[in-house]
């Protein structure tokens, strides 16, 4: 028996949608008031086909993951071949070739001595593992009081409990969990002289209680696509170095090309002690994440004593199917001009979104327009009718999902000029509606 209390919205859609909606619990959704989701039946490139035959141009690349566009044949082939041979074996005590090969490739392509790769299946879990690694790094050296983390206003690192604890509860989506999440030190990003001084003195005072500093390098994503510069990153690295703290760079959103370099940290010339990756890792096809530690962190776990090992092992760690998809995705970064494509998208969005600046329309007043890499943002004072705005973009034939107070585009790096123009034109047209 269903616990629904209201009739389903009338829709000509498939039976599976109507029946399944009685039982599925959708993400980030108020199930009582949300409109019925669109029924997607096929994808290709930058297009999503709905069950009524409409095609939407995708401006979100499935939560920023489908960087090569949908159904890239090279990734589909790799998954198909792997599925026929060995979809999954447990990683403890057994090795599978795709996972081992992927570990080598990630160690080679990430900056500095980020040489040890631990696989999991989602970004939030990769962050949990990074935090656990950092805390145990100190425990293994007999430093028992370093259980807290420094994180920054505007941060988002995932939805699990520890990941929520280092997100910004005020600006983020986890404000109601105070008390449940462990207390951390959340402070402003050191981007001005005043905040740099404050960061430095905070660290100087509390360093011996802190395991690591965690941040999203250059762009804070789900907190509102907030940009900071390379200098800020260098400041954080420098202060961590001077006070002996570990630095965790959460590149789940920024890594793998989104900002025009393979990793955001490269743009500041810094190397974190631990890096997290997910989203684009499999080209948006299968769930996979990586927590990559440098030699200093890894070596602190080496001992004759099992207690000093990283006692962590999700069932699907090193899943062969997902790792095969990731290897194929990395092939595409090597063979196809992804970073150039990102720079092209950036140049297009810089000029195409500019007409939104200063607009005061029915959807709200525009506060800012900003672009970095393949991220284009129109920040609005306040979006009153979120469902209405999302429906309006659907009418334009575009899959654009504003959240908080931003309308943003994060398309596949392979999107064609016509489709990209259709997306930016739609944003300009809708935001300008008076
Ligand atoms: C920077 C960052 N960290 C962590 C996560 C969480 O990843 P997941 O949704 O795969 O758990 C996200 C997701 O948006 C993210 O943007």
Fold and architecture overview:
The protein is an alpha/beta fold and 434 residues long. The protein folds into 2 domains: 38-68 and 338-431, Aspartate Aminotransferase, domain 1 (Alpha-Beta Complex); 73-335, Type I PLP-dependent aspartate aminotransferase-like (Major domain) (Aspartate Aminotransferase, domain 2, 3-Layer(aba) Sandwich). It is built from 14 helices and 17 strands. It has helices spanning 15-21, 61-64, 73-85, 97-109, 123-139, 161-165, 193-206, 230-243, 264-268, 295-299, 320-335, 338-352, 386-395, 417-431; strands spanning 40-44, 47-50, 55-58, 114-120, 148-152, 185-187, 210-215, 219-220, 226-227, 246-250, 274-277, 289-294, 360-361, 364-372, 375-380, 398-399, 406-409. The strands form 4 sheets. A 7-stranded mixed sheet has the order 4-12-11-10-7-5-6, with helices on both faces. A 4-stranded mixed sheet has the order 1-2-3-16. Strand 13 (360-361) and strand 14 (364-372) form a beta hairpin. The longest helix has 17 residues, at 123-139. It binds pyridoxal-5'-phosphate. Pyridoxal-5'-phosphate binds at residues 122-124, 127, 156-158, 216, 221-222, 250, 252-253, 278.
């Amino acid at each position: 028996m269903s616990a629904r209390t209201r009739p389903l919205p009338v829709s000509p859609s498939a039976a599976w949608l109507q029946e399944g909606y009685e039982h599925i619990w959708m993400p980030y959704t108020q199930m009582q008031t949300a409109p019925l989701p669109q029924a997607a039946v096929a994808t290709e490139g930058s297009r999503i086909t709905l069950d009524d035959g409409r095609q939407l141009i995708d401006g979100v690349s499935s939560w920023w993951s489908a960087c090569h566009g949908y159904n890239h044949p090279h990734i589909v082939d790799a998954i198909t071949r792997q599925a026929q041979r060995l979809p999954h074996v447990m990683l403890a005590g057994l090795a599978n070739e795709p996972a081992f090969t992927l570990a080598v490739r990630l160690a080679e392509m990430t900056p500095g001595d980020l040489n040890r790769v631990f696989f999991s299946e989602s970004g939030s879990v990769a962050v949990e593992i990074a935090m656990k690694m950092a805390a145990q790094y100190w425990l293994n050296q007999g430093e028992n009081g370093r259980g807290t983390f420094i994180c920054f206003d505007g941060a988002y690192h995932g939805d699990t409990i520890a990941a929520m604890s280092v997100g910004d509860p005020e600006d983020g989506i986890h404000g109601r969990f105070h008390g449940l999440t462990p207390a951390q030190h959340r402070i402003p990003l050191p981007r001005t002289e005043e905040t740099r001084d404050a960061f430095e003195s905070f660290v100087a005072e509390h360093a011996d209680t802190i395991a690591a500093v965690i941040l999203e390098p250059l762009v804070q994503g789900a907190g509102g696509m907030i940009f900071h510069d390379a200098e800020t990153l260098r400041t954080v690295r420098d202060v961590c170095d001077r006070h002996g703290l570990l630095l965790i760079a959460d590149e789940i959103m920024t890594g793998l090309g989104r900002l025009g370099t393979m990793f955001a940290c490269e743009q500041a010339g810094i190397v974190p002690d631990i890096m997290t990756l997910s989203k684009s890792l499999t080209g948006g096809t299968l769930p996979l994440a990586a927590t990559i530690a440098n030699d200093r962190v890894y070596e602190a776990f080496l001992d004759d004593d099992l207690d000093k090992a990283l006692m962590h092992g999700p069932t699907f760690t090193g899943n062969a199917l997902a790792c095969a998809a990731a290897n194929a995705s990395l092939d595409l970064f090597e063979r196809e001009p992804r970073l150039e494509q990102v720079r092209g998208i950036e140049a297009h969005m810089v000029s195409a979104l500019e007409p939104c600046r200063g607009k005061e329309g029915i959807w709200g007043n525009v506060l800012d327009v900003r672009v970095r890499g393949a991220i284009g943002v129109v920040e609005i004072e306040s979006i009153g009718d979120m469902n209405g705005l999302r429906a309006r973009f659907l009418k334009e034939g575009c899959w654009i999902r504003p959240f908080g107070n931003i309308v943003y585009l994060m398309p596949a790096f392979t999107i064609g000029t016509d489709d990209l123009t259709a997306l930016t034109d739609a944003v300009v047209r809708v935001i300008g509606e008076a």
